[in-house]
């Protein structure tokens, strides 16, 4: 790989697309990357997918290249803006993104929901709800369970889309940093891809939620982005301004601080996920549910 990586990178930079032949990964189940086969060094498809992501390219559909080998083609991402560059309204490019199509997010989010386990008739508060796509997971996690859902966002167009998607829920145009006491208390608070937003002070918001808006047995699910979307592709790694490559420093610090603060105030904390790191917290006195899988 130390030879393949720079050669493929150079071709991509020069031509925007590169094709090369490799041993067919389908012939090597059980082999580790780099182990010898009659057709060359085995590398699973995950290696080529990671290489494509690392080099900012799409991995195209492989084609046969003779006995035991296949053509692998990488095509550089188009130089399009990130989907959130134009805001988060339902008609912006961000409105095309559906996190529930990411199998890791779907599985870990449903597990986190079942870990908090709001009771039948319980109340759910979704902060930064946007168009409400992620609320679809509530029915997946709790089929047939009646829940009162309240969503909060500043974007009124997104709230209108959320209301159309979830007509039985309530949605309010509110600043998450100034939630009124009249909003009440909730058995589950969701804050996905919110805490690192401009103007949000994580420690202050979590303290207010804990003191003013959680029931005694309630829990939280916090989402921290660890990826970005480029040219229709979900690319691994949290980005920092003016950094060419992903850097997880701020992500690690924010997750650690949230975990430490919640544990200090009597919560059990679980950290899961990949492209979005999910921190779920439940009271330490509460039994940890099992059989959480989707």
Automatic annotation (TrEMBL):
Keywords per UniProt: Methyltransferase, Transferase
Domain Methyltransferase type residues, every copy: 125-220
GO BP: methylation
Tagged with keyword RNA-binding: no
GO-annotated molecular function: methyltransferase activity
Keyword presence, Zinc: no
Stored Pfam families: Methyltransf_12
Name this protein carries in UniProt: SAM-dependent methyltransferase
Species the sequence originates in: Deinococcus arcticus
